[in-house]
Amino acid sequence: MHANIVVLPGDGIGPEIIAATLPVLEAVAARHGHTFEFEEHDIGGIAIDRHGVPLPDTTLEAARKADAILLGAVGGPKWSDPNAKVRPEQGLLAIRKGLGLFANLRPTKPHPAALGASPIKPHLLEGVDILVVRELTGGIYFGDKTRSATDATDLCRYTVAEIERVVRSAGRLARQRRGHLTSVDKANVLETSRLWRDVTSRVMREEFPDVAVEHQLVDSMAMHLLSKPRAYDVIVTENMFGDILTDEASMLAGSLGLLASASLGDGKVGIYEPIHGSAPDIAGKGIANPYATILSAALLLRHSLGLEAEAASIEAAVSAALDAKVFTADLAPAGQAVNTTQAAQAVIERLA
Ligand code: NAD
Q1: What is the pLDDT of residues 256-313, one digit of tens each?
Q2: How confident is the model at residue 117 (pLDDT cuts 50, 70, 90)?
Q3: Ligand 1, closest atom to CA 74?
Q4: Label partner for 169 (CA 20 to 30 A): which of 151, 178, 187, 346?
Q5: Cβ neighbour number for residue 283 with a 10 Å cutoff
């Protein structure tokens, strides 16, 4: 297959982890007879410096024509003045919205070799394999806002169509996995949550009768995610609850440097990026963990290019590198860590 992949390194460690990941994709392409063409564009702080805006039109245009987008991270102290007119993170929101990417997928599967890095007891983590699907373009983050001297409001609004499409994505994913979906809401208090629950129940009953569905209130879900994480397969929820629960779920895996994400819409195109930020404290040192970005590239192969065997081969190679204790500084005791390039090389050496 021939695929056109737009690459957005961004800021901080972004260019380092992207530079480490592209050779992994090239190695997979060479082994399986594919050609991947990489087209690099600016987003975030570097785009503000070069073009005055966090998402230049040229970047959005290229992304619209691409088969998939691989992103590093954006942001950093240079652009974090709260009074600044343009901020790097606006670039991320704009590109997700511009491409209609309404479902954010975050898999969490703690690796046996990294269990010690999590604050949760290892016996609770064994066998955990969760996929959170967060609604990404609706809800309270995008509703009308008001502010006066004495009060402020944020409107939370969801339409039936917005709920249906993300629940369908989650239903399809649950079907490909262990056939269990947990929908998270606050239906005892919020009207938007009551709509969420009604629509979810109907879509799942009519279109996914083979998937088991359970509804959970977000407050008890926050507790269960830590006390019995093995009980969950696919979790679907609205934007703000998903924002909070995905960060909580990330603690199950120990290091931010191991967690990948995908943002998908109705079509094949998606944005694939590690969940961590631009890590300005370690940028330029060549010590960042590239595994989360490499695992994001695996999600890209699976969800945008339909290359399941190739995706699985990357995941297995990262797992084998972790088994062999090829750890960057975030995971290794002092003096025993490899650098970013060495970690990526260890993955390439272990590709089937
Ligand atoms: P961060 O994720 O960048 O860093 C948090 C801590 O984790 C730091 O100590 C960092 O060194 C470490 N870390 C993160 N990724 C790592 C990796 N791959 N390997 C080893 N260690 C790693 O979060 P932050 O410090 O809160 O934010 C820094 C900047 O990143 C801010 O400007 C923030 O707005 C931005 N940010 C961007 C994204 C994104 O691009 N999607 C997400 C979160 C934060």
Answers
A1: 899 999 999 998 999 999 999 999 999 999 999 999 999 999 999 999 999 999 999 9
A2: confident
A3: 40
A4: 187
A5: 18
Cα 216 to the center of its chain, rounded Å: 22
In this structure, the strands spanning 260-264 and 270-274 are: antiparallel
CA of 46 to the centre of ligand 1 (A): 16
Check pocket membership of 77 for ligand 1, CB cut-off 6 A. Answer: no
Catalytic annotation, pick one of 219, 228, 268, 325: 219
Quick: pLDDT tens for 24-77.
999 999 999 999 999 999 999 999 999 999 999 999 999 999 999 999 999 999
Is 219 a residue of the active site? Answer: yes
Annotated catalytic, 243? yes
Q: Is 106 annotated as a binding residue?
A: yes
Give pTM, 2 decimals.
0.94
To test the pocket of ligand 1, the residue of 48, 70, 256 to mutate (highest count of ligand atoms within 8 Å of its CB) is 256
> Does the C-beta of 330 come closer than 6 Å to ligand 1?
yes
User: 9: Cβ below 6 Å to ligand 1?
Assistant: no
Domains of the chain: 1-106+255-352 (3.40.718.10), 119-253 (3.40.718.10)
